[in-house]
Write a structure and sequence with these properties.
Elements: H1 2-25, E1 31-33, E2 43-45, E3 47-50, E4 61-65, E5 68-72, E6 78-84, E7 89-96, E8 107-110, E9 116-121, E10 126-131, H2 132-136, E11 143-148, E12 153-159, E13 163-168, E14 176-179, E15 185-189, H3 201-207, E16 210-215, E17 220-225, E18 230-234, E19 240-245, E20 254-257, E21 260-263, E22 272-278, E23 281-286, E24 300-307, E25 312-322, E26 324-328, E27 333-338, E28 344-349
Parallel strand pairs: 1-19, 2-25
Antiparallel strand pairs: 3-28, 4-5, 5-6, 6-7, 8-9, 9-10, 10-11, 12-13, 13-14, 14-15, 16-17, 17-18, 18-19, 20-21, 22-23, 23-24, 24-25, 26-27, 27-28
C-alpha cells in the first residue's frame, strides 16, 4: 500500500509539471499583450459608506438609472429594491419572484437607451419592456411589450435598429447569437481563441466563460473573460476587431474528465468580471487571484478602464474590495457592493 501511494504521488507530480509546462508555452497567437504598466500610474480611490433609510438585505447586483440605485436581491419577495441616491431613501420594491403573471424566476436587468426599463426573464426566454416611471416608483410592473427569444440566452445587450446580441450555449463552436428586434435568430458568431490546452468543445465553453457590454455609437462589443485575462473587441455585427491578453497573461485551467469539468486547483485564477459601458470607456472589475473553491475570495479591489478598442486607459485601486458596481459618469462616482463585514454600498469618487 505504501509503495502504491508513493507511485500515485509521483504520478500526480508528473501531471502537475506537465500542466505547468503547457501553461508556460501557451499563448494567444492573435492577441496583443499588455501589462499593468500600460494603464499608467495607479490611482488609489478611497471608499465611503452610503447609508440609506432602510436596510439593504443582501443585494447581489447593482444598477444605476438616473438618480436611482436598483439592487437585485435573492430569497426575498421582490427581486429589485429601489433607492434614491440623492435623498438616500428607499422608494419601493418591484418584480415578484415566481411563475405567475408578472412574476419572474431569474430576472436580468438589460441596459436600454429609451424611456423604458428592460428586464430579461431568463427561464422563460422573454424580454419584458416595462413602464420606466412605474418601475422606478416601485409600483406593480407594467409590461408594455414582451419579446420571446427562440433559444435560451444568458448575457444580452440591445443594439438599436439592429436587434440583440446574447451568449448562447450550443456546440457549434460559436459563443454569441445575433437576434432581430422580434427575438428571431439571425446567426451565430464568435469563434473560440485557439489554445492547445483546451481540446474539447466543453473545455472551450467553460474556459472562455465571459461577460460583455456594448456601445452602438462606438460600434463596439467588449468581451471580458473570467478564467483568463483576455479581452476581445468586436463590432456590433460580432466581427472580431482584436484580442488583448493581460495584464498578467494567464490561461484557463480546465479539463474535461468524462462528463465533468475539473479545474487545476491551486493554480486556476479569476480574471475579469462585469464590464460596464461608461460613455467612451469600459470599466471592468479585475481579480487575478488564485481561485479557492473552499474559500472563494469573490471581492475585487481593482477596476481597469479601457477604451472601446481595448486600449488601456486607467487603473483604479480600491481601498475597499467590492463584487459589483455601477458608475455615475456625470458625477464621477463609482458605487460598489460589498458584504464585508455586512452588505452595504460604498462610493468612490474618481
Amino acid at each position: 500500500m505504501e509503495k502504491r501511494n508513493k507511485s500515485m504521488c509521483i504520478l500526480a507530480s508528473i501531471i502537475f509539471v506537465l500542466l505547468s509546462s503547457c501553461q508556460g508555452s501557451e499563448k494567444y497567437s492573435d492577441a496583443e499583450r499588455i501589462s499593468f504598466s500600460d494603464f499608467g500610474a495607479v490611482v488609489s480611490l478611497k471608499g465611503d459608506s452610503v447609508v440609506f433609510d432602510d436596510i439593504l438585505l443582501k443585494p447581489v447586483k447593482i444598477h444605476l438609472v438616473d438618480s436611482f440605485l436598483i439592487m437585485k436581491n435573492r430569497n426575498t419577495e421582490h427581486a429589485y429594491y429601489i433607492y434614491n441616491i440623492l435623498s438616500k431613501k428607499k422608494i419601493g420594491e418591484c418584480v415578484s419572484f415566481g411563475i405567475g403573471p408578472g412574476e419572474m424566476i431569474d430576472p436580468r436587468f438589460v441596459p436600454s437607451t429609451d424611456d423604458n426599463v428592460w428586464i430579461f426573464d431568463k427561464n422563460r426566454k422573454v424580454l419584458n419592456i416595462c413602464d420606466r416611471q412605474k418601475f422606478l416608483e416601485g409600483e406593480e410592473l407594467e409590461i408594455n411589450r414582451a419579446i420571446t427569444f427562440e433559444e435560451f440566452c444568458d448575457n444580452i445587450v440591445f443594439i438599436p435598429r439592429k436587434g440583440f446580441i446574447a451568449s448562447v450555449f450550443n456546440l457549434n463552436n460559436k459563443r454569441f447569437g445575433l437576434f432581430n428586434l422580434d427575438g428571431d435568430t439571425i446567426c451565430y458568431k464568435g469563434g473560440y481563441p485557439a489554445l492547445s490546452s483546451l481540446q474539447t468543445n466543453i473545455e472551450q465553453i467553460e474556459g472562455f466563460i465571459n461577460d460583455f457590454t456594448a456601445n452602438a455609437e462606438e460600434n463596439r462589443v467588449f468581451v471580458s473573460c473570467k478564467r483568463t485575462d483576455l479581452i476581445e473587441c468586436y463590432d456590433t455585427d460580432m466581427n472580431l476587431i482584436k484580442r488583448i491578453h493581460g495584464p498578467e497573461r494567464f490561461f484557463p485551467e480546465v479539463h474535461q474528465a468524462g462528463d465533468r469539468i475539473e479545474t487545476n486547483k491551486g493554480t486556476e485564477r479569476d480574471a475579469y468580471f462585469f464590464p460596464l459601458s461608461v460613455g467612451k470607456k469600459v470599466f471592468v472589475l479585475y481579480s487575478g487571484k488564485v481561485f479557492n473553491p473552499q474559500n472563494h475570495d469573490y471581492l475585487k479591489d481593482k477596476i481597469l478602464v479601457f477604451d472601446w478598442n481595448g486600449n488601456p486607459q486607467q487603473y483604479y485601486q480600491l481601498d475597499i474590495p467590492i463584487f459589483d458596481f455601477a458608475v455615475d459618469e456625470k458625477s464621477r462616482i463609482i458605487y460598489g457592493l460589498t458584504d464585508k463585514p455586512e452588505s452595504h454600498i460604498v462610493q468612490f469618487k474618481f
